[in-house]
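WARN no homologs supplied; continuing
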Amino acid sequence: MANSKDPRNTQQQVIDYLLTNPCKTETEIQLNVWGYNRQKSKESNKKYADVLRRAYFKGKIDRIRIQFKDKDTRKYWYYFVPLGH
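OK structure emitted
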């Protein structure tokens, strides 16, 4: 889904992706929208995370926290586009 003609990372790219692929994690969004693999890249994910945070704080996307397994203390944030957007 990465667009080589648009070198900028935009909130609209995230919204478009989440409209057709709801409830995705930050890692899944970064990989599928921009081709950025945070586990394998030496590059910082700050610029990608900032795009997500800006869209979240502006109310363009929302997130829910899901915890798997009772003994697992890790929390996962899943992002989606709220109804009416």
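The chain has one domain: 11-80.
OK
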